[in-house]
Design goal:
alpha/beta; six-stranded mixed beta sheet; Transcription Regulator spoIIAA; single chain
């Protein structure tokens, strides 16, 4: 199962991902959620709750990084668990991905962002 919750704060879109990014439906759901953030200047992908990431998911992250770059957007991965970070780091094509580690990314960055949240579920 894979879920994406989108939080928008100004021109920053934070996509809180949860579950496994291993099957094509999860990979395409992630793609669609990111591509819906066309008005954002920065897309932050919070991976702190991702249990597993396989080749197709890593390939999609690289595609999304390039998609964002082509549109003048910043794209970063936040707080992937060790096993997910190792999968990314051991994939040569993923060398361009930026990973920031904060310990555990806060689920809410602003006081009342619930109105700006969009939920994507299985």
């Amino acid at each position: 199962m894979f879920n994406v919750n989108v939080e928008k704060i100004g021109d920053v879109a934070i996509l809180h991902c949860e579950g496994r990014v291993v099957h094509s439906d999860a990979v395409f759901r992630l793609r669609d959620a990111v591509k819906q953030q066309r008005s954002a200047r920065t897309v932050l992908l919070d991976l702190s709750e991702v249990d597993s990431l396989e080749g197709g998911g890593v390939g999609m992250l690289v595609f999304l990084k390039r998609w964002a770059h082509d549109r003048g957007m910043e794209f970063k991965l936040l707080d992937p668990p060790d096993r997910v970070r190792q999968t990314i780091e051991h994939t040569p094509s993923a060398a361009e991905l930026e990973i920031d580690v904060f310990g555990h990314f806060p689920h809410h960055l602003s006081g009342d962002s619930e109105a700006n949240r969009v939920h994507h579920h299985d």
